[in-house]
Design brief:
By secondary structure, the chain is of the alpha/beta class. The protein folds into 2 domains: about 210 residues, 3-Layer(aba) Sandwich (Rossmann fold), CATH 3.40.50.1980; about 130 residues, Nitrogenase molybdenum iron protein domain (Rossmann fold), CATH 3.40.50.1980. Helix content is about 35%, strand content about 20%. Strands 8, 9, 10, 11, 12 and 13 form a 6-stranded mixed sheet that branches. It has a 4-stranded parallel sheet with strand order 5-4-6-7. InterPro entries: ABC_Transporter_SBP (IPR050902), ABC_transptr_periplasmic_BD (IPR002491).
Length: about 350
């Protein structure tokens, strides 16, 4: 497969902005689905016009649906995208955090008429409840923090809505999340929304894309990779969570140990530049919120680490920050982007 042909399998995506506004939100937060006790069951005695009642276990909570939700909200563009690709765009009554990232070009028009509940943060409690949702899909549990003025999961329950959190964004899963967690989200939402065929097709496409990467890089030794986030002169290393598993799936050997004490409670840790120098990564991956942030980060890395192999070889790989959120189809885009840069001769 040529590199251009491989790229053609990826969706067209726009750059993101506002990554720093959700950085704190991410804190709370063979293909093997080891997804925090999540599963789908059905009750044959309770059914609606479209089939059996459905119960899924999500973040340790059982969510039961006698009928398919008809008023759905996506609390991040990544969740709104997933809902649209499952074919339930007509049921979406609200989208949130729309300025954090742009929807892919091929579905942006479908979302144009969906009411916007917030721009760069989760919607206030009153605004979310005002659209009377019966299902709210979110990347992490942070979006339901009552202390921040957001509707809590309990408040949603009291108003007839169920909150579905991306498997990789569950608090007890956040540091051990895997790329394949999104497959569980697709399966769960497909069952909840009674669109199993669309879910199966999306899962198959996702698995094929991951398998193509695995096949392309299988015979190559993994290069040493550092994954960082730069905001101003603040440098953070990414060592755990979905972000780290993206590196592993793309064929990189993370120079930071996910089992290290600095990543025991959070997938990222602020570090001194010397930590990067001492590990001498062959590639550096960094999340960006837009073209300006990307350029600033590249300048910082070049000036701070001129003798690190990644800089000497110009192997500085930018990834849209929204592709690193839990429960995002963009996770697969990130894997493909990084793999193509790490193994240019394999695609």
């Amino acid at each position: 497969m040529t590199r251009n042909a491989f790229r053609a399998t990826s969706r067209r995506r726009s750059r993101t902005r506002g990554l720093s506004t959700v950085w704190a939100a991410l804190a709370v937060a063979p293909l093997v689905l080891t997804a925090c006790g999540t599963g789908v069951t059905s009750d044959p005695e309770a059914s609606d016009a479209s089939g059996e009642a459905v119960t899924v276990t999500n973040c340790g909570r059982d969510l039961s649906f006698d009928t398919a939700p008809s008023r759905v909200v996506g609390l991040m563009p990544s969740q709104t995208e997933l809902l649209i690709r499952l074919g339930v765009g007509d049921s979406i009554v609200g989208q949130a955090q729309t300025e954090v990232s742009a929807l892919p070009d091929d579905i942006a028009e479908q979302a144009a008429g969906i009411p916007v509940l917030s721009a760069d943060a989760p919607p206030p409690r009153e605004d979310l409840l005002a659209v009377a949702p019966d299902l709210v899909a979110s990347p992490t549990e942070y979006e339901f923090t009552a202390e921040q003025g957001f509707a809590s999961i309990e408040q949603l329950d009291e108003n007839g809505a169920r909150a579905y959190v991306a498997t990789g964004g569950c608090a007890d899963r956040r540091n051990t999340a895997e790329v394949t967690d999104v497959l569980r989200d697709i399966e769960d939402l497909g069952a909840i929304l009674r669109v199993p065929d669309a879910a199966e097709e999306l899962i198959q496409d996702t698995e094929e894309r991951l398998a193509a990467v695995e096949a392309a890089i299988s015979d190559s030794p993994p290069p040493a990779v550092a994954q960082v986030y730069v905001e101003g002169n603040s440098l953070s290393a990414i060592g755990a969570g979905i972000e780290a598993d993206i590196i592993r799936t793309a064929g990189g050997d993370n120079v930071f140990d996910p089992d290290g004490p600095e990543f025991a409670d959070f997938f990222a840790a602020q570090i001194n530049p010397e930590e990067i120098v001492s590990r001498a990564p062959e590639a550096i991956v960094f999340g960006v919120s837009g073209p300006e942030h990307e350029e600033r980060t590249r300048e910082y890395l070049r000036s701070t680490f001129p003798e690190v192999p990644a800089v000497e070889n110009e192997l500085l790989i930018a990834v849209p920050g929204s592709d690193l959120y839990p429960g995002a189809l963009g996770n697969i885009d990130a894997v493909e982007t990084i793999a193509q840069e790490l193994y240019p001769d394999a695609f």
